Amino acid sequence: MIHDKLQIQVPGSEWKADLYTYFLDNSIEMHPHKKRPVIVICPGGGYEMTSDREAEAIAVQFLARGFHAVILRYSVAPARYPEALLQLARTVLFLRENAEKYHIDTEKIVVQGSSAGGHLAASMGVFWKKSFLAKRLNTESEMLRPNGLILSYPVISSGDKAHVGSFQNLLGEDYDDGEKRESMSLELCVTKDTPKTFLWHTEPDDVVPVENSLLFFQALHALDIPVEMHIYPVGGHGLGLANEETSNDEGYGVQEECQSWIRLACDWMERL
To answer: CA 254 to CA 243: how far, in whole Å?
Structure first.
């Protein structure tokens, strides 16, 4: 495995992000020319931090199923939009530019995000074709295209069901500008260019209401974009893998009923 820590910096920006790579080596004994999907993991944390509980443990599960994984520790407050999005776009570009070196299937570059990381991942899904991204990164928009999204209890809407703190951290002073705040409500930004999506959420989530996933699902479905969604009737917010590995010191985060999400997401990846 090629495990490394790389620095992601967007031209013209003072902000830097760390990218942790987990690329599976090809073997002369086993499919030496194999190209693998890669999952870009964006941990949550309300755009205030990036949570360890939604990072390496998730990457290891994807690795065990034969996928490459990378973890983006993107810039958070006081960094403001679009710094994190630019860093994520730069990461997708890096993976496409280095696909031969790391044996990446360039038609299966998938962005995964949890909570506010889900907002970042979904932002990449709806905004990848925006001209400012390609211009800042000196590339073509198609190089920034994610082939799929995996969204775990994502922050989506800046409306009535918003996780307010995420948008305050993302926008700073611009949070009070209704137009700018609405522009970050991603259910309103879905287009035909938004990629296939896998969603999961818990119905009782009292931090990021389940309506966030429902609104995104409805927007995708209205445009006939393939979407798979799983709503679990039990469990709170921020479950990670929903097992002991990603539980906190107090034991929060273990929810056996929700542990199936990673298997379901990998099955979805196989069909992508």
So the answer is: 5
Contact 166, 224 (CB under 8 A): no
C-alpha to C-alpha distances, 108 to 24, 37, 135, 147, 250, nearest whole angstrom: 15, 5, 24, 6, 37
Note the pTM of the prediction, 2 decimals.
0.98
What is the Cα 257 distance to its own chain's centre?
23
Confidence of residue 115 (pLDDT cuts 50, 70, 90): very high
Return all residues near 108 (Cβ < 8 A) that are at least 6 apart.
36, 37, 38, 147, 148, 269, 272
Bridge partners of residue 18, in order along the sequence: 7, 73
Place of tokens 């696909």: 99
How many helices (H) and strands (E) are present in the chain, helices listed first?
9, 8
CA distances from 229 to 121, 153, 198 (A): 16, 11, 6
Which residues, in sequence order, are CB contacts of 244 under 8 Å at separation 6+? Answer: 254
**DSSP helix/strand/coil, 149:** strand
pLDDT at residue 32, as a whole number? 84
Q: Going by C-beta distance under 8 Å and a sequence separation of 6 or more, which residues neighbour residue 203?
A: 210, 231, 232, 233, 234
Q: Which amino acid is at 232?
A: Y
Q: Residue 10, Cβ neighbours under 10 Å: how many? A: 20
How far separated are the first and last CA of the chain, in Å rounded? 24
Alpha carbons 45 and 187: distance in angstroms, whole number? 20
The answer to whether the CB of 146 falls within 8 A of the CB of 128 is yes
Give me the pLDDT at residue 30, please. Answer: 80
Positive or negative: CA dihedral 214, 216, 222, 224:
negative
